[in-house]
Amino acid sequence: MNPADLNILVIEDSDADFHLLERHLRRGGLQARLHRARDAAELKAALETQAWDLILTDYTLPGIDIRTRLQWIFEHLPEVPVIMVSGTVGEETAVDLLKAGLEDFVNKDNLAWLLPAIDRALKRVALRRRQHRDEARLRLWDTVFEHAAEGIFITDSEGHILQVNRAFTEILGYAPEEIIGQTPRLWKSGRHDRSFYQNLWDSLKRTGHWQGEIWNRRKDGDLVVECLTISAVRDPGGATTHYVAMFSDISRLKRTEEELAYLAYHDVLTGLPNRALLNARLNARLDHALEHALEHARRHRTQLALLLLDLDRFKHVNDSFSHATGDTLLQQVAARLRNCVRQDDTVARLGGDEFVFLLENLHEPENAALVADKVIAALKRPFQIGGHTIPVSASLGISMFPRDGEDAATLLRNADAAMYQAKSEGAGSYAFYTREMTERAREHILLESALRRALEAGELQLHFQPQVDMDDGRPIGCEVLARWHHPELGTVSPARFIPLAEETGLILELGAWVLENACRLAKGWLDRGLDFGRIAVNVSGCQIRHRVICDQVAQALARSGLPPSRLELEVTEGFIMEKAEDAIGILEALRDQGITLAIDDFGTGYSSLVYLKRLPIHCLKIDQSFVRDLPEDREDAAICQAVIALGQALGLETLAEGVETEAQRRFLLQHGCRLGQGYLFSRPLPAEAFEKWLTR
Ligand SMILES: Nc1nc2c(ncn2[C@@H]2O[C@H](COP(=O)(O)O[C@H]3[C@@H](O)[C@H](n4cnc5c(=O)[nH]c(N)nc54)O[C@@H]3COP(=O)(O)O)[C@@H](O)[C@H]2O)c(=O)[nH]1
């Protein structure tokens, strides 16, 4: 404080002593304002009217003793320093008065001590005032810390907990004595990955601050969501000395938020997603699918299907029973529908008796039809509600992405149109958006189940197409071709049922059956002295991919007793080249069993010369598509010549498929292809007819 601003009260009844004191202070350079109190009345008035920075008092004053005077002073100004300037006080009294609050004592005979005493007293008072202020601030902080609604904890720079408040204990359940010295890892929830904590520490180190939502675990194991703020406390040199963390428990808020979000996106009655969630999911999938459409379609060949379901005559349930019964029925229907699809498919209720299925990653539209069939079957069992047995059926309309629309609204509209089509065809059925798709899907499903029965029912037969030396017509072998005679559908072409069998996996069983029967019949011919050459059996890529072909061949040869040299396997060029590395080992194992191998449909599958050289094959079958327009088509002629030349260069036989005319035969022979097969020599024949052909 500037000494000129000091207000000093001098309690002195003697004029001479006052002036002496005044002169001494002025001479010492103290330009303070001095005010004098000569008796008790003036002292009382001075204390009541003004605040003093310092009081100098004589020992004696008329009308009031020194102790009462000190009492008065401290009652009015508890912090003011009082220095006694007197000549009449003994040492003992001085000590007593110092104990009573007197700041200092200066003898009138030695006024030289006065100014230093004033200086000391003022400094001590300033220090005391600062301490009082700090103490008050600490008390305030303690109250705030202890009574804050937010949990607070303070750690050292290593993260060891130094202090926690009451709210911390209330929120996390740990008492201070359990937690002091531990680190916050103690209450980690395990819900965040390493990168979450990495980011938190990065931010603290970079900015000294982190704020965010965090999942932790209470002492009792329950999860808690906190809104947490952490601040680093740094020393003047910038080194972190502490971390202060404050958090509030927002678990309830989160739950409420989640409940609201759930209500906004779910149907209250059934708990299924509602129209809003369906649209959100559908749009997200469509956006993604459209973005990656080409790439995705090429790589995965998958589609999305939207199935719109409407319960047949649901209004009748509400009218005949009650709305409560109708509600319960919808709940039970919803539960059955959910069980018809995979976990990652969506079943939503649009409202009323309308439900929607969003099926993802479908390889065929027929898979959507299978789900529709499953749904119709699931609803067939009548519902039992309140003592009533209620039969239910539903009609479903199916639209496919991207074929029937590229946005949610179009797909829904088209599924709706298909659903009305299904309704018009009778309750409990489904329809695709296009009639042609519906028919294809139905036929596919029908054929699939019929094919499963065909083997046991003896509906499959083997036909044999002769293979000849085109120069002299001598038989050199025959190709085995499966035939299916369905009692109602008639003859079903292998071009239709072989791909279906491959898709459903039935080809494994069918392929084994063909091998067994072909070998058995061939052995019978051999036993009866009929020389057919080699018997060529078509092998599907599935049989190789599933690694069953070696066992199937070994078993068929062992059971029939046919010499392996009489058996040839035909594998398509497309499959071999797609899976060349995998196929080589298996084909080698087959060759090692003593059988021969031919590449079927050669010329259609982009053969790699490197693989051709490595594969253990002995024959290339020129695909009939290159033979058909011989000899006129110059490109086909060039391809046939190239394949023949390639076969010769690699030391392989070449056999032309689909030879129908004399001109084709001549052309092929002329260019070095001696072996052929086709209607010119014979159509595929049933076993008995083939035997006759051999002996013709
Ligand atoms: N994995 C298996 N595939 C099989 C089996 N049986 C048949 N198939 C495959 O089905 C496809 C269609 O066969 P198919 O209808 O029998 O047709 C074959 C011949 O009948 C036909 N052919 C023969 N000569 C001529 C001709 O001069 N003209 C003409 N238009 N068609 C003719 O060609 C088919 C033989 O083709 P390929 O097998 O490529 O030599 C067919 O892909 C069969 O392979 C089976 O048991 N397993």
UniProtKB/TrEMBL annotation:
Domain Response regulatory, residue spans: 7-123
Domain of life: Bacteria
Cofactor or coenzyme needed: Mg(2+)
4-aspartylphosphate PTM sites in chain numbering: 58
Catalytic activity reported: 3',3'-c-di-GMP + H2O = 5'-phosphoguanylyl(3'->5')guanosine + H(+)
Annotated SMART domains: EAL (SM00052), GGDEF (SM00267), PAC (SM00086), PAS (SM00091), REC (SM00448)
Keyword terms, alphabetized: c-di-GMP, Phosphoprotein
Residues annotated as signal peptide: none
Residues covered by the EAL domain: 444-696
Enzyme Commission number(s) from the entry: 3.1.4.52
Residues covered by the GGDEF domain: 302-435
Domain annotation PAS: ranges: 137-183
Biological process per Gene Ontology, one example term: cellular response to nitric oxide
PROSITE patterns in the record: EAL, GGDEF, PAC, PAS, RESPONSE_REGULATORY
Domain PAC residue range list: 210-262
An MF annotation (GO) of this entry: cyclic-guanylate-specific phosphodiesterase activity
Top-level enzyme category: hydrolase
PANTHER family in the record: BIOFILM ARCHITECTURE MAINTENANCE PROTEIN MBAA, DIGUANYLATE CYCLASE DGCP
Record-given protein name: cyclic-guanylate-specific phosphodiesterase
